[in-house]
Amino acid sequence: MADIEKLVIIGSGPAGWTAAIYAARASLKPLVLAGDGVNRERMPGGQLMFTTEVENFPGFVHGIDGQKMMGVMQQQAERFGTRVLQNYVTRVDFKTRPFKVWHLNDLSGVAETGVATHAVIVATGASANYIGLESEKKFENNGVSACAVCDGALPRFRNNPVVVVGGGDSAVEEGTYLTKFASIVYLVHRRDTLRASKIMAQRALSNSKIKPVWNSVVEEVLGTEEAGVTAVRVKNIKTNATSVIECRGMFAAIGHTPNTAFLKDHLVLDVKGYVTLPHPFRSLTSVEGVFAAGDCADPFYRQAITAAGMGCRAAIDAERWLAQQGIH
Ligand code: NAP
Known about the structure:
The chain is of the alpha/beta class.
């Protein structure tokens, strides 16, 4: 391994780029390992690369395309001296210092390389779970979404029926949110009771625009390339009866999986795999010198703006910790 880096940032969503902007401005010359783009989880830019319009990030009066936003953040980070490799991190060693991080690019054939670093910010994000249907994949960004807050206000859903799949807090929250735009929200859930907290479940079930479809799973998303989603076929798992629900969109709200599998022997993670942050309002992890930011450490808010804020915290924490070690 060559020289020791001061700071390696793993991940390139709003948390990673914000951390990079702050760290670069503090002269730390961070190295961002952005992902190699082999699949969704390894996509440089993270989840926002799959979002059409971001309308709720302050500063963009008319919204901004998710991909464009990530490009602009990267440029801003690079302007202050951030170095970027479009490589994917395969493994880490946080047991001894300096830490070690191994990365590769399967797409362009760059073999696994190790880098030694004094500090690390983990900003690997989380991936929304999808049902796993072929047809669901086909209509992604064309009526299928996993984020009502990101996509719910799009014209295609306005005054039209939509389907939300799931029975947890996310499903009822997304369903309730979508009632602002949609004519009716079908809540398709595989059981006959909701997992969601009582108050949120009650609020959803008493909303006249939400119609639960119990004991049911979506079997196929229907539509055309031009029109996008036009309906879903659902199966009642008690009776095996199938039916078609006409709708312009299907929102999967069946949980998220943090992209942290490669960290499990090195950082304390919670039962769902989110990085545990033991100190409230801080970015410190279970390992001194390793910090975490964004959706990989946030099972609750999962917004671009909260991830960016966490990235800022992590860079400030890293800079101060490095200074304490005599590294500037
Ligand atoms: P969750 O609580 O794990 O619920 C996931 C839901 O999706 C469950 O109803 C589950 O069904 C269903 N599901 C899972 N896999 C499925 C599949 N393949 N096909 C169909 N349905 C499937 O996840 P979440 O709702 O995202 O919530 C995650 C955490 O964030 C929770 O702790 C929640 O309280 C919290 N949260 C809080 C708020 C809030 O308070 N404002 C908002 C959102 C989330 P089963 O019920 O049958 O397992």
